[in-house]
Amino acid sequence: QVQLVESGGGLVQVGGSLRLSCTASGRTFSDRVMGWFRQAPGKEREFVAAISWWWIGDTTYYADSVKGRFTISRDNAKNMMYLQMNNLRPEDTAVYHCVVAKSGNWPPSGRKDEFDYWGQGTQVTVSS
User: Fold this and answer.
1) Which residues contact 64 (CB under 8 A, 6 or more apart)?
2) What's the per-residue H, E or C state across the chain?
């Protein structure tokens, strides 16, 4: 059974940093695009970042709102993915979900239906 488990969320002040981790189990995803979505209270779930699979060389792609502040990475040997979040803002407050795409197609569209595996999420709260 495939499972994605996020960790690393928490409460941080404006300008602070957090590193989220995603542990995948049940199969390897080295041939799939992986990424992060987030959902703030009362808002739609939105795309945050994605990273390609090994054949394309771990190319990354970001939403404009996080570009330059967030860095996505993956460790295929450990079946893990990370999201380093720096210079956090109150608008970054959300539940962050680890996701795996249905394929290795690149670049991603950012649409939710492009991803078929989702983790339960980890809460990130940025206080001002």
Assistant:
1) none
2) CCEEEEECCEEEECCCCEEEEEEEECCCCCCCCEEEEEECCCCCCEEEEEECCHHHCCCEEECCCCCCCEEEEEECCCCEEEEEECCCCHHHCEEEEEEEECCCCCCCCCCHHHEEEECCCEEEEEEC
- Reported as a single tens digit per residue, the pLDDT across 12-29 is 999 999 999 999 999 888
Residue with tokens 């189990």: 25
Q: What is the pLDDT of residues 59-99, one digit of tens each?
A: 999 999 999 999 999 998 899 999 999 999 999 999 999 99
Q: How confident is the model at residue 37 (pLDDT cuts 50, 70, 90)?
A: very high
